[in-house]
Each structure stands twice: as structure tokens, then as C-alpha cells.
Write a structure and sequence with these properties.
The chain contains 5 helices and no strands. By secondary structure, it is mostly helical.
Length: about 110
């Protein structure tokens, strides 16, 4: 439920910025893509944040090395999720994506 709330609140906030005259957020597609990007960051944070042990415990006992499986899923998610294209913010996404991968490797 939390990712959905982040998506909705972020979209409303960015839409409001667009209505206030911030040019980058005047197009609804950009507003939704930005909200979706924030939602992805929230869901990915569970893989390396303080909730990581909970996520590892959710892996069924039939699978070996649940900690490694959680790490593999976040690396796959970080590497194969298509970038959220926001005009003028593409380099910022690359920096965020690189930072997320570095955090996973540590």
C-alpha cells in the first residue's frame, strides 16, 4: 500500500508544481513518470535498507541462500528496469541508479 500512496502523493505534488508554473511538470506524462520513479525507489529500498532482514525471512525455506536471492533481485531490478525518462533529468537518474547499485554492493 505504501508504494501506491507514494505514487499518488508524488503525482499530486508534481502536478501542483506544474500548475504553479514549473515547466518540467506541465505535461501529465512527466508527472506520472516522476511519481513512478519515486515509487520504484521506495520499493527498491527494501532490498538494502533496515527492512532487508524481513525480506530475507520471506523467502521460502526451499530456496537456498535467501540473502543472495534478495541481492540478485535488487541487482536485476536496478539493471533491467527501464529508466524513467524525464526531460532534463536523465543524468540525475543515471547518478541515482549508480548510487543504488553501489549501496547494494556494500
Amino acid at each position: 500500500m505504501a508504494p501506491f500512496i507514494v505514487l499518488v502523493v508524488a503525482a499530486i505534488a508534481f502536478w501542483s508544481l506544474g500548475r504553479a508554473g514549473v515547466a518540467i511538470f506541465e505535461h501529465p506524462g512527466t508527472v506520472l513518470r516522476t511519481g513512478l520513479g519515486l515509487m520504484f525507489l521506495l520499493t527498491a529500498s527494501a532490498h538494502w535498507g533496515k527492512r532487508r532482514p524481513d525480506l530475507i525471512r520471506m523467502v521460502p525455506p526451499a530456496f537456498p541462500r535467501p540473502d543472495l536471492l534478495v541481492t540478485i533481485t535488487v541487482k536485476t531490478q536496478a539493471n533491467y528496469t527501464p529508466p524513467v525518462r524525464i526531460p532534463g533529468l536523465t543524468s540525475a537518474h543515471i547518478m541515482l541508479k549508480g548510487s543504488a547499485q553501489e549501496a547494494v554492493l556494500q
